[in-house]
Design a protein that fits this description.
The protein is α+β, with helices and mostly antiparallel strands. 31% of the residues lie in helices and 22% in strands. GO terms for molecular function: site-specific DNA-methyltransferase (adenine-specific) activity.
C-alpha cells in the first residue's frame, strides 16, 4: 500500500481489498484501462524460481494456484462489467499460460490478443471490450 500511495502522490486514489471488491461501484462500466499484476506462478513451480524472487516476495504475490491462473480467472470473470466501451484489460502471464488465459477472456466477449516481447521475456494478454456501437449491434 505504501508503494501504491507513493505512486499516486500527485493525485489519485488507492483502494485496498480483494480484486474488484475494493473499488467504488460508481466505477463499474467506466474503467478505460485495467492493468493486472496478479500472481501467475503455478504453486509447484515456486520452488524453482530464482532465490531473489521466492525468498523476498510474499508467497501471496507469487502463488497463482495449480496452473497459475486462479487469480487471473477471477479477474477475467468480472472485468467486462468494469470496463468502459472500448476499455482495455492487460495481464502479464507466461507464454505457456497465455493461450488458456486468452480462451477464458474470449468466453467473456472481450476481444483478445497475445503480445510477446523477446527483449523483455514478457508475455501480456490484452483484452478490449467492444465499442458501444458494436456491443449494441450485437444485441440486435
Amino acid at each position: 500500500m505504501r508503494c501504491a500511495r507513493r505512486n499516486v502522490a500527485g493525485g489519485g486514489l488507492v483502494h485496498e481489498g480483494d480484486l474488484f471488491a475494493a473499488l467504488p461501484r460508481t466505477l463499474r462500466g467506466r474503467v478505460d484501462l485495467l492493468v493486472v499484476n496478479a500472481p501467475y506462478v503455478p504453486t509447484d513451480a515456486i520452488g524453482l524460481m530464482p532465490p531473489e524472487a521466492r525468498e523476498h516476495e510474499p508467497r501471496l504475490a507469487l502463488d497463482g494456484g495449480t496452473d497459475g491462473l486462479d487469480v487471473l480467472r477471477r479477474v477475467v470473470v468480472d472485468a467486462p462489467s468494469w470496463l468502459a466501451p472500448g476499455g482495455s484489460l492487460l495481464f502479464e502471464t507466461s507464454a505457456q499460460q497465455s493461450p488458456a488465459l486468452a480462451d477464458a477472456v474470449t468466453q467473456t466477449g472481450l476481444i483478445v490478443r497475445i503480445v510477446q516481447s523477446e527483449e523483455s521475456a514478457a508475455t501480456v494478454v490484452v483484452a478490449v471490450s467492444r465499442a458501444a456501437d458494436a456491443a449494441t449491434s450485437d444485441r440486435r
